[in-house]
What does this fold into?
Amino acid sequence: MTGQEAAFLILAVIGGLAALLVVTSRNVVHAALWLVVALASVAGVYLLLAAPFVAFVQVIIYVGAIVVLLLFGIMLTRAPVGRRVLDNTLRARVGAFVVGGGFFVMLTVFLAGAFGGERISSQAATATAALGESLFRNYVLPFEAVSVLLLAALIGAIVLARRD
Amino acid sequence: MPLMYPLVFAAFLFSVGVYGVLARRNAVMVLMSIELMLNAVNVNLIAFNAYLRDQLNSGQVFALFVIAVAAAEVGIGLAIVLLIFRNRETVNIDEVDLLRW
Amino acid sequence: MEKLAWLVPALPLVAWAVLLLVGKRLPGGGAAVGILAVAVGWVISLAILFGVIGGADAYHVSREWAPIGAGFDIPLGMIVDGLTAVMLVVVTTISLFVQIYSVSYMRGDERYTLFFANLSLFTAGMLIVVLADNLLLMLFGWEIMGVCSYFLIGHYWEDVANARAAVKAFLTTRVGDLGFMAGIFVLAWAARSFEIERIIDGVETGAIAATTVTLGAALLFCGAIGKSGQFPLHTWLPDAMAGPTPVSALIHAATMVAAGVFLVARMYPVFEASGAVLDEIGILASITMLIAALLALVQDDIKRVLAYSTVSQLAYMMAALSVGGYSAGVFHLFTHAFFKALLFLAAGAIIHTVHSNNMSEMGGLARVMPVTFVTFLVGSLALVGLAPLAGFWSKDEILTDAWNAGFGAGVEAPTSQSVAQIVFVTGMVTAFLTAVYVARMLWLTFGAAYRGQGHPHEADAAMLFPLVVLAAGAALAGFVGLGDNSISTWIQTTVLPSEGPATLNLGLVVATSAIALAGLALGTVLYRRGLPEREYLERAPLVWKTLQRKYFLDDLYEQGIVRAVAGALAPATYWFDQRVVDGVVNGAGLGTRRLARGLRYVQSGQAQWYAAALFLGVVGLAVVVTQLIGN
It folds into this structure.
């Protein structure tokens, strides 16, 4: 087991546990904080997979902006606490477990069948410059589109949330 | 490392996200679960990018786009949740069933 | 002028539409529209007839209307030859005078305009039959007449008996029409065309097999049996008297019932080629004329006497056609139209003023209604066949033809000798009976003292004018049978050459006149003093009962056929329609509703439920797709 693999396993366990706690916690704010842990561990995984820039972006935007946004949302909606309020009926939870479990099984089986024995070769971390070049040269059109999307989302959110 | 490691991790995150979407009553919690799912997708993309050693790094570029879109989506989603809360004093999504028969 | 012949049925059709749509708002209830339409047609018909008399050729125009495939098409065309011209004049004349008469007779009726509309439609239908150059178009006009007969007989439908009579007429003729339709299709299929000329061609050249010809002719004749009231489908005609008298005059004396005779005349080469069918026609005609004349002898209702008389005279025409007397039959149709319509209209005038149909409530009207009496007398004597009135010439020609075919030497008759002999004998007997019942009718209506309750008076001018005109016709129409350019020359069709003028067998003339006079004398002796205490025939109770029950034929039909259909078949069909057919339709709706009610729970309105379905679907799809494509 290489160091990379070991590090990955640790991060994966932390991330997985955090994710589980996000969806089962009785306190909304706790759930949000566990989400932070999960997102951070994902950032770590990115680092291990030779994508440093994406990892930084993940931390800045996801942990920094999105979670903060979610916390604001929790605050503004006077998020209640407690199992009865937060979780769906038992029947729905069982159904959800079935669906989620089914998904996991299906994905694993298929992926194992397709990529069972493959390995990721160790490689140098992607240089930000290379990423930038790719982004602004080959994918400039989606880039522009995404900017327009962000503008639209911005305007939309403002219009929706106005007090009129 | 074996490719399956990040793939299984991504699958696990995604499934947990699915469970969260279906089992949680609070709208904000559902949004959080959706974020988990999007992150799982990103992990998948990055893993394949590393595996395939893509010249253009399209996996990473696409992951960036996903993050941007996720941000936009959370913004709008929360705006909607706020509106619902303003109108109905509740964020339980099973009480928002106006399209019911 | 022949080219304008299509106007003759078209104008009444237009009149019908106009009357239906705006008739009630027109002055006089719109009667003028109907009369005008027929009057123009009458003028055109007369012009065409004069053209034919002057030796004009037959005119045939046809256009393909609708191709049906397999080399078939439905043509739309008309043929204007001598037969057509004569029939056109008959139909338009009678229709015109009946409508003029109806202005007075139907005055005050609440369905006045509708009456005239129906009369116009009926006239159009009959004219279509007369002008049609193909059997399908003829069938079209035929059915129009059938339906109009139903409407008109049921004009006073508030009385259930009248409605029933209308249904009876319609259904009975419908039974005949089934045979007619079958005959059309048999012949058209064999000749590969619906056109009459082609069919006749096919028959004459032998292109159509003899058995097919016989079958087709027999089936076609079924239609004639129904429409022209031959045994065994004659039962509807007396009941049809429930309609207003102008209807009886137009439809059940002169035109619709003549359509059967016209059909046989038009398709005569087909019938000629099949001796068996002609024999059948002859036998049925003989039976019919005899039984109808006997029934006319015991009726109280004056219209029923005339109705049975019509059946009897139609049988004469059919008998003429059966023994090869083509022109004799058509000639009798021509004259009969005049005097029978006259008799009905005059009877109508009487009924109108006496307010009763029954002769037991009439009597002594000769003094009160002189003009009506004279015209009625003329018509009656024409019916009896007294020279020199119209009926004499035509009836004599029929009997002469029958004699020649039955007992004469060296005559090529298309029918067998024995049948012709039967025809001749029954013709003579019926002539005697005709004279007896006519005399009875005259004396009971006009002679002795008045037996009724009302205050009879002469009819008004609008009713008398047609009577006088028709009386003139009844008196003089017979002379068209004389001379070189006689009616038989006119009615030569495109395929049937003229038979030359009628030759009179002097011995026969004497014999028939003697029989007629003898019958009149007997009738006079028996009924001179009016209605006897008991009818003479009542002394033979069995005969009396049979006659009163119309030979139990109505009972037979009622019990045998109507019961089975109305009693069992109709309710079963109704049940089937309501439960099964409607059930399927309603069930489809109900089933959909129930299904929807079950399915709507899928629309829970909750996003998580939808999301769950979505994810499950994805899983399912993924599994299915990979299994199908193979890993």
Summary: The interface with chain C takes residues 88, 92, 95-96, 99, 102-103, 106, 110, 113 of chain A (CB under 8 Å). DSSP finds seven helices and no strands in chain A. Residues 90 and 96 of chain A are 10 Å apart (CA to CA).
